[in-house]
Amino acid sequence: MSDAGPGRNPSGYSNPEFDELVELAKFESDTNKRASLLASAEAILLRDQPIIPLYFISSKRLVAERVQGWVQNRRSIHLIRYISVDNAESRK
């Protein structure tokens, strides 16, 4: 992306079709359409191969049903103030 600024594009990669999809995704409020635009941009990036992804980060969590307030999210940030444990089963 040519307008990314210093430090944001160390490979010097430039593709007008990729740039346009990313630019459209910036302003898309519909999350499904935005995801589709970014997936198309990613496909172009992987086709052109200016970078080679070595790994993809993933995380798995096993959370008991009695845990309340747990919401899975992409950044795997879980604020403890929203989480509680329902001990109703242990009182029976």
Provide the spatial order of strands within the biggest beta sheet: 1-2
Mean of all residue-level pLDDT scores: 85
Q: SSE string, helix = H, strand = E? A: HHEE
Q: What about the largest sheet?
A: 2 strands, antiparallel
Helix content: 25-40%
Rg, please? 20 Å
What is the terminal-to-terminal distance?
A: 61 Å
Percentage of residues in DSSP E strands: under 5%
Structural class: mainly alpha
Q: What global shape is seen? A: elongated
Q: Unreliable stretches, pLDDT < 50, 5 or more residues?
A: none
The number of helical elements comes to: 2
Number of separate strands: 2
Secondary structure: elements and pairs:
Blueprint: H1 16-26, H2 31-48, E1 67-68, E2 84-85
Antiparallel strand pairs: 1-2
Task: Please provide a written account of the structure.
- The structure is a single chain.
- The chain is elongated, with a radius of gyration of 20 Å.
- It is mostly helical.
- The model has no long low-confidence stretch (mean pLDDT 85).
- Strands 1-2 form a two-stranded antiparallel sheet.
- The protein is built from two helices and two strands, in the order H-H-E-E.
